[in-house]
Write a structure and sequence with these properties.
With 499 residues, the chain is an alpha/beta fold. The chain has helices at residues 4-23, 54-66, 84-87, 99-107, 126-132, 161-169, 193-203, 206-209, 216-223, 245-252, 278-291, 297-305, 405-408, 414-433, 446-455, 463-478, 490-497; strands at residues 45-50, 70-75, 112-115, 135-138, 144-145, 158-160, 185-189, 229-233, 257-259, 308-313, 316-323, 330-341, 348-359, 362-365, 369-370, 389-390, 393-394, 400-402. The longest helix has 20 residues, at 4-23.
C-alpha cells in the first residue's frame, strides 16, 4: 500500500507527465508510473517506424499483435496517412483501398500512435530517433523517379508516371502539374500495372471517373482531354509484359475503347502457350484474344462504336523525345526496334539498328519508382536505390531496420509489401527475443522526439487530427456524389486538423 507521501508524489509525477504530453498535443500512455498497473509495462520496447504507407502500417501491425511489450510510433512526412494506398492506387480501384480499414485499426491500437507532418531527415534526424527508441524501422517507400536517360525527356509534355498518378490522386506536391492533354496520341513507356492504370485513366469515360475519389482538377482536365489513342510501349515481347491479368482485362473491357495492335508482333506466341505457367498462360491468351482473334458480333459492334483506342507496342526502346518546331514541347518519340535473344528468364532485348518515329504530344515514363537517401547517417546503395540489409536488418547499423520498397526495391503489389513487412517485424522481434537488440534501457520515445520538434516549431498531426481531415474530405465528396474530395494543400490539411 502506498504511503500518503508516496501517493502525493505519484500524483505530482502523473500531472507533470500529463502536462508534458498535453503540450505535445497528445495524451501519453503512462508506463507503470509509481507502480500503477498499465497495459504497457515500463520495460516495453519502443519502436519507431518512418513512413505511414503500407510497409509502415503492416510492420506496426505485426509488432503490436505479436508482443504485448512493444510500443510503436509511426512518423509520416504528410499530415495524412496511408501513402500509396491513398496516392498510388487508381481511383477506380476502391476495393484495393479497403486495406485502409485494417491500417486504421492498427493506428487506433493502444500501443500504436501516428505522428503526421514530421519530416524525418529534416525536422528530426535518424540519429535522434535512434536516441529516443530501441529500434528504428525505415519504411518510407520510393519517392524518386527513374529517368529514361534520353535527349528530350525534359521537354514539356513529358512526365513520369509517378508524378502523373500523384496529380490525379491528389499528392500535394503534384497538384500543380497541369498536364496538357490536348494531343491526340499519348505514349506510355513501360508495360506494368501502373502503365495500364495511367492508360485507363486517360481513356475512361468521365461518367465513370466522376464517381471515384479522383481529384476534381484532374477530372476537369480529363473531361476536356483530346487524347484518343494510347500506345503502351515495352522493350521486350508479349511474353514479358509486366502487368497482371486483372489490369489487362480492365483495358480489354474498357467502355468506349478498342484494342489496336500489330499482329506481326504476336507471331509464334500461340505455339508457346502449352509451355507457360498458368498465370502467364492466362495473361497471354487474353492478350492474343484482344490482339489478333476475330471478335464476335457483339464485341465487333462495341469496337466499331468506340471513339478511343489503345494498344501495346513491343520490342521498342526510347531513344529520343522529339521536340516541336519551337523546341519547347514534345511532338513525338523515336524508338529503337529490338529483337529478343535467349530463352525463358534469360531472354534479353537487343537493338536491331532500325528506328521508328511515333507522333505524340504526351509521353509518360512508367519505368519504375526509386527510393532516395533519407538521412546521411543511413547506409544507402545508390546504384540499387535501396538500403543494404539482411532480412530487414540494416547492414552495419545496430537497431536500424527497413521494410517495403526501400528494403527490396519498388516491385510487387500491396500483398507483397505486407509479407515483406511482416518478415522485417519478425526479424526485429527475434532480435529482441535473443538479446541482440537491447531493450533493457529506458528510452523516451515520442516524448523525447516531441520535445525536439517543439523547439523546432514543428507540430505533429495525430491520428484523431487526421480523422478530422478524413471527415471533411468525405463531406466535400458527398456534395459531388464522390467517396471523397481530397485536400491538395498541406496548409489546408493542417488548418482542418487543428480546428
Amino acid at each position: 500500500m502506498m504511503t500518503t507521501h508516496k501517493a502525493a508524489l505519484c500524483k505530482v509525477q502523473i500531472l507533470k507527465l500529463f502536462l508534458t504530453s498535453a503540450r505535445c498535443g497528445r495524451i501519453t500512455r503512462f508506463h507503470g508510473v509509481c507502480g500503477l498497473s498499465t497495459s504497457t509495462p515500463a520495460s516495453s520496447a519502443k519502436v519507431c517506424i518512418v513512413g505511414g504507407g503500407p510497409a509502415g502500417f503492416y510492420t506496426a501491425q505485426h509488432l503490436v499483435k505479436t508482443r504485448t511489450d512493444v510500443q510503436v510510433d509511426i512518423y509520416e512526412r504528410l499530415p495524412v496517412p496511408f501513402g500509396l494506398v491513398r496516392f498510388g492506387v487508381a481511383p477506380d480501384h476502391p476495393e484495393v483501398k479497403n486495406v485502409i480499414n485494417t491500417f486504421t485499426q492498427t493506428a487506433q491500437h493502444a500501443r500504436c500512435s501516428f505522428h503526421g507532418n514530421v519530416r524525418v531527415g529534416k525536422d528530426v534526424t535518424v540519429e535522434e530517433l535512434q536516441e529516443a527508441y530501441h529500434a528504428v524501422v525505415l519504411s518510407y517507400g520510393a519517392e524518386g523517379n527513374r529517368t529514361m536517360g534520353v535527349p528530350g525527356e525534359d521537354l514539356a509534355g513529358v512526365y513520369s508516371a509517378k508524378d502523373f498518378v500523384g496529380w490525379y490522386n491528389g499528392l500535394p506536391r503534384n497538384s500543380e502539374l497541369r498536364p496538357d492533354l490536348s494531343c491526340e496520341t499519348a505514349v506510355i513507356l513501360g508495360q506494368g500495372n501502373v502503365a495500364l492504370d495511367v492508360a485507363r485513366i486517360l481513356l475512361s469515360p468521365v461518367d465513370i471517373l466522376k464517381k471515384t475519389d479522383i481529384t476534381q482538377h484532374a477530372l476537369d482536365a480529363l473531361a476536356e482531354s483530346g487524347v484518343r489513342r494510347v500506345l503502351i510501349v515495352g522493350r521486350r515481347g508479349p511474353l514479358q509484359v509486366a502487368c497482371t491479368i486483372k489490369e489487362l482485362r480492365e483495358m480489354v473491357n474498357l467502355p468506349g475503347t478498342r484494342p489496336e495492335m500489330e499482329a506481326s508482333e504476336f507471331e509464334g506466341i500461340a505455339e508457346t502457350l502449352k509451355s507457360l505457367a498458368r498465370p502467364r498462360k492466362r495473361l497471354t491468351e487474353l492478350l492474343l484474344k484482344a490482339a489478333i482473334e476475330t471478335p464476335g458480333e457483339e464485341e465487333l459492334e462495341r469496337r466499331n462504336r468506340a471513339e478511343r483506342a489503345w494498344g501495346f507496342r513491343f520490342l521498342r526502346k526510347p531513344l529520343e523525345v522529339l521536340p516541336s518546331t519551337d523546341l519547347i514541347r514534345a511532338a513525338g518519340i523515336r524508338l529503337a526496334v529490338n529483337r529478343l535473344e535467349g530463352d525463358g528468364e534469360g531472354v534479353r532485348a537487343v537493338a536491331t539498328g532500325e528506328v521508328e518515329d511515333v507522333e505524340c504530344g504526351l509521353v509518360i515514363s512508367s519505368i519504375g519508382y526509386k527510393s532516395l537517401l533519407i538521412d546521411p547517417a543511413v547506409p544507402f546503395d545508390a546504384r540499387k536505390a535501396i538500403i543494404p540489409n539482411t532480412m530487414g536488418r540494416v547492414q552495419q547499423t545496430a537497431g536500424l531496420y527497413c521494410s517495403g520498397w526501400v528494403k527490396r526495391g519498388p516491385t510487387g503489389v500491396i500483398a507483397t509489401t505486407m509479407n515483406d513487412s511482416f518478415d522485417t517485424a519478425r526479424t526485429l522481434l527475434q532480435d529482441i527475443g535473443n538479446g541482440t537488440l537491447d531493450v533493457s534501457t529506458v528510452k523516451p520515445g515520442s516524448q523525447g522526439v516531441y520535445a525536439l520538434l517543439e523547439k523546432r516549431g514543428i507540430k505533429p498531426v495525430s491520428f484523431s487530427d487526421w480523422e478530422k481531415i478524413d471527415s471533411e474530405e468525405t463531406r466535400r465528396g458527398e456534395t459531388k456524389g464522390k467517396p471523397r474530395e481530397k485536400m491538395l494543400d498541406v496548409g489546408e490539411m493542417l488548418q482542418v486538423a487543428r480546428a
